[in-house]
Amino acid sequence: MRRIVILGGGTGGTLAANRLRRVLDEEDVEIVVIDQDDCHVYQPGLLFVPFGLTSLEEIIRPRGRQLHHGIGYCSGGVDHVELDADMVYLSDGSKLDYDVLIVASGATLLPEETEGLLGPWWMETVFTFYTPDGAVALKEKLDWFDGGRIVVNVVDMPIKCPVAPLEFCFLMDWYLRERGIRDKVELIYATPLDGAFTKPVASSALGGLLEEKGVQLVTEFNTGEVDGSSGRLVSYDDREIPFDLAVVVPLHGGAPFVGRSPGLGDELNFVPTDARTLQSRARPNVFTIGDAASLPTSKAGSVTHFEGEVLVENVQRFLAGLELDASFDGHANCFIETGFHKALLIDFNYDTEPLPGHFPTQVGLPLLKESRLNHLGKLMFRWFYWHSLLPGRDVPGVASAMPTHGKTEEASSP
Q1: pLDDT at 399
Q2: What are φ and ψ of residue 15, in 5° steps?
Q3: Does the structure show a pLDDT above 90 at 395?
């Protein structure tokens, strides 16, 4: 019997395991998922926790319960992978051989890499909403916040869900207006990018929304130090942004075990991966899915979802000794909450900018335009996540490849 070992029980690892179990005979192929804990977090929900729009109880479920019957689950840490031996070594000293390895270990926050970020003011005046504990602590702080300067800061790219810090700004504007204290708060968004977002068309639209909502945009700000005692963000070129409350998205990297596995990862512990087949560049029998991959696309749940179709096809082809499918196009699809029960939707891939129009067809959701329908779509996605995406089911009308119907192609450049 051949064995597929999946390192990571998050979005990518879970949907890959479930999809593979549906197409591979249980008598021929064993599937084992390994993760360091049994808490599966619906990460888009963390954005809503600080504003009291959801709670941790509503967005966390046991990892093992998300896996289909016939999939083994091991709760434990990974020490390293020995590629030449096709062997995974676990933190408890045990080991597990594999015929195919799928790295689905996501991205890890590295706040310790920024000077001062984890200082005495961490979780006092300096927060992040990218962790469950941080999102809850920030909610408690906001409950009592009555005025001053709030700075939302992205330390560096890449990060999980690159639109989330922008969404936080939009929701913060709404939250403060609902509380009647918006005029008492100066809201700043500081990013290392040269605009609000990586894609020029979306960057222009999102930058316009920031301006409309009175959020100051500070670009090319590369955070070198967080001085909590004096309330300052300091960039590497010595620019400073004072704050009363800082909401920081720390530097991201791959899983630590990737760095302990010779030949598997890059300098940030992400796994170099073929952008079209999702086969790693380390070994032919190693594949990557989700945020763990070093790919020129967003580290977002939608990307992981779209990767799943191609990944499963290619694992099957690899086991059968066939040529791999090189059809993944970097498809990304993001709902962007803009406050006041509205959201904006963008859809793009490696080669195509976010375009206006509708998704997935001419009668679908509006693109690059605020609407209540998009807001409802984002809220509904949580149900799809637990009941369709993770179980490995296809979403009707939404395929891996980016759809072109209903879009205005001539708007592809700013």
Answers
A1: 80
A2: -70, -35
A3: no
Please tell me the least confidently modeled range out of 36-50, 186-200, 349-363. Answer: 349-363
Structural domains in the chain plus CATH codes: 2-107+254-320 (3.50.50.60), 111-251 (3.50.50.60), 332-411 (no CATH)
What b/e readout covers 234-262, taking b as 16+ CB neighbours within 10 angstroms?
Answer: bbeeeeebebebbbbbbbbbbbbbbbebe
Give CA–CA dist 347/295, Å, rounded.
Answer: 17
Query: Which band of pLDDT confidence, cut at 50, 70 and 90, is reported for residue 367?
Result: very high
Q: Please say whether the beta carbons of 308 and 288 come within 8 A.
A: no
Place of tokens 């296809």: 394
Token pair of 24 as six digits: 């591979």
* pLDDT of 202: 85
**Cα(144)–Cα(165) distance, rounded to whole angstroms?**
21
Q: Peptide bond preceding 360: is omega within 30 degrees of 0, i.e. cis? A: yes
Q: Is pLDDT of 313 > 70?
A: yes
Q: Which residues contact 63 (CB under 8 A, 6 or more apart)?
A: 9, 14, 33, 35, 37, 38, 39, 40, 73, 75
**Whether pTM exceeds 0.85:** yes
| Mean pLDDT computed over 328-354 | 94
- Report residue 257 as tokens: 């075990």
Q: Provide mean pLDDT across the span 64-74.
A: 96
Which residue has 């888009």 as its token pair? 44
Distance CA 322, CA 319 (A): 8
Distances (CA, A) of 317 to 209, 276, 323, 362: 45, 14, 7, 35
Residue 257 has pLDDT above 50, yes or no: yes
Given this model, what pLDDT does residue 409 score?
66
- Asked whether the beta carbons of 123 and 132 are under 8 A apart, the reply is no
What are 102-125's pLDDT values in tens digits? Answer: 999 999 999 999 999 999 999 999
Are the C-beta atoms of residues 337 and 167 closer than 8 Å to each other? yes
Determine phi and psi for 29, rounding to 5 degrees: -135, 125
